[in-house]
DNA sequence: AAAGCGGGGTC
DNA sequence: GACCCAGCTTT
């Protein structure tokens, strides 16, 4: 079965500015966060689920508490749902405690305690969508997998002149396609972290800090002719797979 | 495509 | 009071 899809081809000059600027900035200004000291997929999973629509500052203490109480995926699988929820419910979106519990039990029973290493398998687990699957693939396993969270969505949308608030399938596909196209080979772990820090610290939702932005020179938001910018920045070409 | 889930923070 | 936060599932 042959499927036809479009994939993004980004202007090489703009891509170089973007990748180089962001990586250099990240090595200097990037945040030091607890889940960046590990590549354990279980730890990455816990951090990502807790971070759904929840600020880093709020999650940090809960993340530490959670892993202190449930150090391994087996510990979590054997725990009671009630105790799990005691830790996670105060964050809101209370279904997340159940998701983590179910995922842990699935990893133990269906995957023999070995964390799945493919997007397809990860996506089959409750509470793991396209973003979280990409995060585990890149942060835990180091694969060249793209991510698109609210930070990256906004950053890429602004830089490449895409209406990132539009929820249509076409727009979402374009943004994912760009997120995939810009990952530097073999460097997804660092690059994806850099993208999120840029979105969280520079390209913020309100009052973005364009004056100190390392990629402002290439950004469509600051371009002189924004209406023409889009088609000159990214092309979409057919791909058969 | 849009609603629902949610506590906590900012402006 | 409106908007935002390392999203996902259901309708």
Task: Please describe what this structure looks like.
- This is Adenine DNA glycosylase.
- GO terms for molecular function: 4 iron, 4 sulfur cluster binding; 8-oxo-7,8-dihydroguanine DNA N-glycosylase activity; adenine/guanine mispair binding; metal ion binding; oxidized purine DNA binding; purine-specific mismatch base pair DNA N-glycosylase activity.
- Belongs to the Nth/MutY family.
- This protein has 241 residues and is mostly helical.
- It has two domains: 4-32 and 146-240, Endonuclease Iii, domain 2, CATH 1.10.1670.10; 40-140, Orthogonal Bundle (Endonuclease III, domain 1), CATH 1.10.340.30.
- The protein is built from twelve helices and two strands, in the order βααααααααααααβ.
- The protein has helices spanning 12-29, 41-50, 56-69, 73-78, 81-88, 95-109, 119-123, 130-140, 150-159, 169-181, 188-201, 226-233; strands spanning 4-10, 234-240.
- A two-stranded antiparallel ribbon has the order 1-2.
- Helix 1 crosses helix 11 and helix 5 crosses helix 6.
- The chain starts with a strand and ends with a strand.
- It binds a DNA duplex (11 and 11 nucleotides) through residues 35, 47-59, 90-96, 99, 126-132, 135, 147, 149-152, 167-169, 196, 199-200, 204-207.
